[in-house]
Amino acid sequence: MSSTVFRPFRFLHRMAHEQPVYLWSFGIGLAGPVMVLVVPEIRKSFFNWKPADRLPTSYPLPNRERRLVAGFEDSQDNQ
After folding, report:
1. Residue-wise over 1-25: b if at least 16 C-beta within 10 A, else e?
2. pTM (2 decimals)?
3. Pairwise CA distance, residues 36 & 32, whole Å
């Protein structure tokens, strides 16, 4: 029974010596989803990180009457 329980660990130990690229790829692949859940909470609690303000999606219009543009080739007067 002990050989079947420790077989994955023996395999990983052997692969760490023979082909470490596969072991590191496996470790980094497992760390990615864990970091998605853990890193935002660490940034908020330890570094007081706050997301940046959202960029405006429209330009504020001036509070005045709009004048027609004159003197350009796309104006209404040239038609």
Report:
1. eeeeeeeeeeeeeeeeeeeeeebee
2. 0.43
3. 6
